[in-house]
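ok here's Putative competence-damage inducible protein:
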Amino acid sequence: MDCEIISVGTELLLGQIANTDAQYISQRLSELGINVYYHTVVGDNKQRLLDALDVAVKRADLIITTGGLGPTVDDLTKETVAEFLGLELQMHEPSLQHIKEHFNRTGRQVSDNNIKQALLPKGSIPIPNPNGTAPGVIIEHEKGIFIVLPGPPLELQPMFEETVVPFLQKCSDYTIVSKVIRIFGIGESKVEEMVKDLLDEQDNPTIAPLVGHGDVTLRITARVRKGEDAYALINPVERQIKQRLGDAVYGVDDDTLSKVVSRMLIERELKLALAESCTGGLISDKLTDVPGISMVFDRGLVTYSNEAKMELLGVSSDTLNRFGAVSPQTAEEMALGALAHSHADVALAVTGIAGPDGGTLSKPVGLVYMAIADSYGAYSSKHVFNGDRRRIKEIAALTALNLLRLHLLKNND
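and the structure:
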């Protein structure tokens, strides 16, 4: 089955909101073995939507629309789809009752334009909307299968999972399964070079390199008939990739560096202290997004000024005067100070120049030093990152987490 997604909304064309609905639906359809070959975005205009539908039925068996189901005059998707298919609209009493109950709960009166949301194309399958007033519909027609959904993700996603997925599972004999290999510390071109023969020979499963936010991913995708084991195809390829890339592979699927580092600390029962300067608490923020991190995260200090580095971490004024705040010596003293002034087993420190000002020829914008300290002492590493202030902070935080990950791996061995 081939699908086209038609997203309706002038706000999408103006760039006022991102089209996350199409991304979500495409991901879910791929898992159901349904191909998505086209994304179309059209404004709140009846004729242009009719034109888009006319094109879509010539190249897809399944057309999914999102948006345009609200109560206002420019919400016209359902009416336009019904007109395109030659179907009259009829009042659906259960949907009308749901709308009335929704308004009663909030102490408001139901208006005529809300009542029109309960008008559904004749012969359609209603899609209940537990989080809003606009029901969706499934229409099985000689021109194809049409699924009409509202735009707000908090409404669309539960409707898709509870009603659309069970319906579509009956329509496909295949399923598509993907596994994502997550890599840090090697650029996309180098990764591609290291697995080039696998990319050249790919058939089923396929391998797709993708660049993320600081990391690189390889997505392995297998297509199998229902009941067959997709991982029998995926696992051998995954093993080859991990063997070639080694410790640069930090996780799979939904793993993040913060999740992986947190898991490693918890498994080893090691407490962590952080001392951040240029990252401004970003590393602490990433770690504290992980449930359970309180078991091992002792403390995080943002020591932005030289005075804070001296007062809270014990960095010596001599070190700061001789080498500066952005230096391997200061980074190591920050890490040692965080370790000494905490109950941690390992400490991580970061200091650098995020820009756009403050750089010199010898210490350019993007220069960052990181250090790790434990009971054996401290060591530092030098990095130079490109980009604006936000990107330098982000990539520095991720690189620091990766440095800690590699340190924990090495110590575990």
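+1. The radius of gyration is 27 Å.
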